[in-house]
Every structure is written in C-alpha cells, then in structure tokens.
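Q: Give me the 3D complex with phosphoenolpyruvate.
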Amino acid sequence: MRRPLVAGNWKMNGSRTESAALLERVKKGMSSASKAEAVVCPPYVLIPLAAEKLAGSVVVWGGQNLSAHKSGAFTGEISGPMLKDYGCTYVIVGHSERRTLYGENDALVAEKYGAAQAAKLTPILCVGETLREREANQTETVVARQLDTVIEKHGIGSFKNAVIAYEPVWAIGTGKTATPQQAQDVHRFIRSRLASRDEAVADNIRILYGGSMKGSNARELLAQPDIDGGLIGGASLQAEEFLMICRAAD
Ligand code: PEP
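A: Here is the predicted complex, encoded as structure tokens.
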C-alpha cells in the first residue's frame, strides 16, 4: 500500500555543470512506470536548475532544510514558501548534520516540520541515535523523544502528510550500514509508536532508512517489511547508484 520513496540528499555538493549532467541522467534513467517515487534534494542555489531540468519528468525535487519562519529579517535563511515557489514537493527536516553541526534541537526541528507543512511541503523528518547512544541501549529512547516532540506540537494527524527517515548517525557517510535487522527493528519501533496513537496513520506513513545505502545493499534493506525507501547521501551523487536504489525500491 505504501509507495516506496527514494530521496537523494546532495548535501553541499555539485557545480551547475555537474548537477545539470546528474539531473539529466537521473531523469533519463527513471522509468515513468516506476512504482517508486524519486526525489532529489540539491543545495538551495541549484533548486531552480532542478526545477528546469526535471519539469515534466517523474522525478520531483525538494529542499535539504528550511527556516522555521515564513519571511523577514533572517539573514541567510530560506523559507518554506520560497521552496514551494520553486516547485519543491519535499523538504528534509532535522537531518543529523543540522542537529549536530548547527545546534538544531528537537523543539526547533518540530517548528521546522510545522513550517514545511504550512507551506504545503511534505517534511522528511529525520530521527536517529549516535553510536554512543546505541551502545548505551538508548536507541529507542532517543528516537521516541525526537518523534514525540513533533507529535506533541503538531498532533498525530500531521503525520498523514509526512515521511520519516530513520538515520542512525553512526551510519551516515561512514560506509557502515545498519544490518537489515537492526534497521527493521527501529522502523518497527517507530511504526508501533505511531500506531499507539493512530493505527491508520502508522500503516500509511513511509519510513525511509538512511545511512550508507547504496546500489549493492539497497535490496536487502528495502526487503524489510517496515522499510519503505531510502534517504541517500553519497550514493545520490552518482546517477547509476541512485537509479540502482530506485530500481531496488520499485
Ligand atoms: C544522509 O546524509 O542522509 C545519508 C544517509 O548519507 P549517506 O548515504 O552518505 O550515509
């Protein structure tokens, strides 16, 4: 019932020329008959290029972050309505790099999630534990706290228009992937936590896995019953790798 979703997080990578070529290749390689949905999230300045190159294709685009505010004196920030204006469908919220490098706490992430929905964007809400937290058996506590802050602020009903990405911080950009069973266990936990508030919302929401997913390990991860797609960093910068993951999700 849940349509698989593969989202590419380009992070702070790509010149205009390189990005144009990558967008062309992804567009060309993505079958219009694909069951899986593909989204690319380039850096802000490349979003107009993505809009131009991907217009009319099955591939959609989104932002990597947004301001909690709509407009005003917030130097250097980009708002939800601005992303929407450039045709974005999705926006990543609470990526671990935003949480750790830019001090985004659960409360701010929850505000950004609300700002995304207010702009009619679908937030991809990232949650996940650090290695230290996993080793201290804190994975479920951390993920529950990250989720509950959003549920308490916006209600369980808001998850009808959201995607969750479980991204163990220790697996992001490290080449260390969670085993399919480790990932499935946390995905099941997330779904059951939502189900305790609303079963239909929990059944319908897509929960992506993120953390060193690539063409060669995607199939096994995506075969897990509660893994509905991937949030892909490094591998999304290579068209063939990204397309392999999309095909595995299809
Ligand atoms: C990410 O940044 O969300 C991510 C999963 O990165 P990588 O695939 O490179 O681990």
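A quick observation: Residues 139-154 form the longest helix (16 residues).
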